[in-house]
## 1
Amino acid sequence: SAVISQKPSRDICQRGTSLTIQCQVDSQVTMMFWYRQQPGQSLTLIATANQGSEATYESGFVIDKFPISRPNLTFSTLTVSNMSPEDSSIYLCSVVGDSSYEQYFGPGTRLTVT
Amino acid sequence: AQSVTQLDSQVPVFEEAPVELRCNYSSSVSVYLFWYVQYPNQGLQLLLKYLSGSTLVKGINGFEAEFNKSQTSFHLRKPSVHISDTAEYFCAVSGWETSGSRLTFGEGTQLTVNP
């Protein structure tokens, strides 16, 4: 399985600002995913990020709010723009394993917006 | 579209007791099923997976799950739980109709193991 790290691990931000979350993988992977986990809830897929192409966003998520970069096969960033308290969540990145069906997750970034 | 239903939001048990966390799914095509565990303040860890073959799947930490196609279920079991098993457990499904890798998660089951 891949080893995934995320930065920052947690942050407290003010309303109206933006935060960029980094996801680093210890091996080259084709597909990376970004998820949101709101307090006490399950995971919701934000977007799929493939290297060399635009990210694919799920219904309810837009590029202006959650811009994603994928500059190479080991790194991706997710920006949460113009934040509001409703954006307070855990944001997790994941990568696809060797079987192409299992996913491995980073430790998450815990975001609180005040 | 695929969906996953975890039938219990909270399961309290005593240490060394057996436990079953229930998961049902709906899909019109072949599926791949997963159980993940999330310990407090941590990310998700893959417990076990069913891709094909034997319907009884063994995972880490003594957990196992059984794929039942006729009942569209993938229940997670452990014969004797420990305090350290206290965590949130998520059932997830992916399949051909969602481009293979896209996971759909259930709402989660909080397992609390009491001494």
Note: The radius of gyration of chain A is 13 Å.
## 2
Amino acid sequence: GAGVSQSPSNKVTEKGKDVELRCDPISGHTALYWYRQRLGQGLEFLIYFQGNSAPDKSGLPSDRFSAERTGESVSTLTIQRTQQEDSAVYLCASSSWGVTDTQYFGPGTRLTVL
Amino acid sequence: GIQVEQSPPDLILQEGANSTLRCNFSDSVNNLQWFHQNPWGQLINLFYIPSGTKQNGRLSATTVATERYSLLYISSSQTTDSGVYFCAFNAGGTSYGKLTFGQGTILTVHP
């Protein structure tokens, strides 16, 4: 595709519910990244995929967070039993080659947990 | 841990002025990128610059890897340059794949 796309663009949910966020990387990009941006803050790394494997999950804040990637394309970030502190913008990025390459970001999903 | 520090945190300019934004990083550099986050939240790539100097129109960037800093220059600023500028850095090794972001510089350009 022309760029990284994410869906939904906005998600409002109630505390305790599960949510799934989707990322479609640029076609042909082998690496995919998830970041979180809290209001007024910089981005925090969550997890990255090289192909379908996740060599680095160190940024996932708790076991309520998980992510998967299938077919070296779409990735889904799942947050179980959402808490109010999970409210943030979740951004996905992809890069064409290994991790030394430029990362291109999607527009993000704004998650609000009531 | 790996740290990225940006300065200044806030910058207010009149249209037409020049500015320099600085990014200090704590380790040897594998990947360094500058981004502009527009008012709608979209992160726009400005430069991939682990070393050396690059220019793109009114913007240019220089990274001195041996001294662990990078500079972003904005010349003849325009109101559309307003937003948040982020520096992000990857040191390789155990942090391979992870960009660590600074807290950003909030730039406001007045007409």
Note: The radius of gyration of chain B is 13 Å.
